[in-house]
Amino acid sequence: ISLRKSAQLKLKSGAPAEALSLIDLALAEEGGSAELHSMRGMILARLDRLDEAATAYRRALADKPGLGEVHNNLGTALRRAGYSVEAHRSYAEAHRLKPDHPSVFLNYAMSLAETEQLEEALSALDSLVARAPDYVDAQYNRALVLMSLGRFDEGWRAFKWRLRRADVHVRHEDFPQQV
Q: CA geometry: angle at 106 spanning 63 and 151, to 5°?
């Protein structure tokens, strides 16, 4: 079994630190391929080492700039690290490369919202919902953007859409409020 495959198995089994050691060995033995650097980024992101993850993704993209998934993963690492503008750029490139991929499209739309481009975010989400009307995350985030725009009636209707769906389970919880 290859070091790469062993690293994948360790990551899937919930041992990201061990996976990182294995992927670093693979990089030392095989040299730096885009796939190995991307996998290293995924492992580092799982370990919440987000700046290092971003560096690994950038190394992968230096080798193969057309990897939309890696641009998407870079955007996620940057967003989680608090770099909204840079994340938006990565998501925009991922969306340009993979315009029909629903989660890439959603990340792009939400990066618009996070960079205060709410009308553009709503337009993107409307387009995504038109393409994938049963995509729950798109519907939910569309509702959030509508509410952020002060369009409360539309926002609540969009939230209620989830309740009509038999396959979307809504768990009732009481959230205590501090007095």
A: 150
